[in-house]
Amino acid sequence: MTSTELDGSASRRTPSAAEFAEVQASPDFQELxxxxxxxxxxxxxxxxxxxxxxxxxxxxxxxxxxxxVFGNINVGLLLGLGQFVSTFxxxxxxxxxxxxxxxxxAAAIRTKLEGGQA
Length: 118
Fold this sequence. Notes:
The chain contains five helices and two strands. It is mainly alpha-helical. The protein has one domain (36-118). A hairpin with a 2-residue loop joins β1 and β2. α3 packs antiparallel against α5. The model is unreliable at 1-5 (pLDDT under 50).
């Protein structure tokens, strides 16, 4: 079996530039972009605000960041670890969002485009 037979690309065709432009202007594609932007822009702004707050607290609120929470663990360390936790949480939220909202729409658009029904 050839690699073309394995991945099923024998039935696919390469769309023309005009077909790509037509799909890009389609309501389905515009809805896909709108859904992506409604997730990505607010999440990016939220994370940047959170990160900037952490950096500013570290630079200007030394006493606050040095407050001991328990043992040798202080507020600054907990907020720093929170940066990693929030990064993983945002990634998990995006993967879930993409799997449920974006991927099915993108697959439908791709099927139409590569199947010649654009």
